[in-house]
């Protein structure tokens, strides 16, 4: 796997330099467009719609046009696409990567989700797979005619989408599902439909649907190798545990992809790790001191499973929810040092939790970033979809 006689150790300091440059967080590493951000980071978390915009804005040289430019990329040029990806999570990807994501991570999940839908319908005495295929074909045809549509709008063209069935009858979590909500979710995982424009502003969680852009069907192993190569180029070194967690693959798939791309084994504090071929040497650094305010679920904060090298364990109770979702974070020179929130009047407020090596220079830099964020967010009130203790406290004005 490209492993030499000597395995190079990459320490925390160098890992933080790599993070600053490759995650486009240092001032000199910022870029000019949402496409450049997505291309570099591979994937932008989209479970919370606001995360895509906030993650882009934090990495632009001039963030004043963040909303307009990101909407252009997502809904006009379609150079970015929101779709299901790793770990059955919604991300925004460069459109040219959609085939790789679909083949490498979507196919297995898609098969499982369709089987689950059919099983749930059968238990409820709902129509069979043939009926569902007919409804699916009609829904896709209607969506093609409309261009973009909500589930409610599609039921006007295909009334069978309104059909409902009882889910988990007799269980404590029993509920009623509509065919439209479950079917559109399955079609999204299968790569047949993608999220279109939101019904409201850029922070809205309600989306229209659109037919997915056409893409070739790729070999699964080749697609996995390509996705892992792209991610490891940005996030290496990473351990096998990091790779398995981020991709959501089986460990055998991770190891096969590492072999295919001739990944090079190195050493980090957590143990054996990997970088892409040619990336085992020292990186240029150090970088100029930098600060950043990143949103909840930012791809950098959520980039690795083993995070102690950039996020002290003592900070996790304040910055994560019970499901493991990270909230808004404050960064200084490659590590998380606190969190931030937005008050009802729009003010960006923040608090430092880890003050080791953080002095007046850091506080001044964080204040600049807070004002920079406030400048482009304007009057929009952004509330994270997954709220964490410190963000709740700061946003409530009690911090």
Short recap of the structure:
With 399 residues, the protein is an alpha+beta fold. It has helices at 12-22, 34-41, 49-57, 66-76, 98-123, 129-146, 151-157, 179-189, 220-235, 240-247, 251-260, 316-319, 360-377, 389-395, and strands spanning 44-45, 80-84, 90-94, 148-149, 164-167, 175-178, 193-198, 207-211, 264-268, 271-275, 291-294, 329-332, 335-342, 348-352.
Explained architecture:
The protein has 399 residues and is of the alpha+beta class. It has 2 domains: 1-78 and 219-399, no CATH class; 96-211, no CATH class. The chain has helices at residues 12-22, 34-41, 49-57, 66-76, 98-123, 129-146, 151-157, 179-189, 220-235, 240-247, 251-260, 316-319, 360-377, 389-395, and strands at 44-45, 80-84, 90-94, 148-149, 164-167, 175-178, 193-198, 207-211, 264-268, 271-275, 291-294, 329-332, 335-342, 348-352. The strands form 5 sheets. It has a 4-stranded antiparallel β-sheet with strand order 11-12-13-14. The protein has a 3-stranded antiparallel β-sheet with strand order 1-3-2, with helices on both faces. Strands 4-8-7 form a 3-stranded antiparallel β-sheet. A hairpin with an 8-residue loop joins strand 7 and strand 8. Helix 5 (98-123) runs antiparallel to helix 8 (179-189), helix 5 (98-123) packs across helix 9 (220-235) and helix 9 packs across helix 11 (251-260). The longest helix is centred in the N-terminal third of the chain and has 26 residues, at 98-123. It is globular. The N and C termini lie far apart (50 Å).
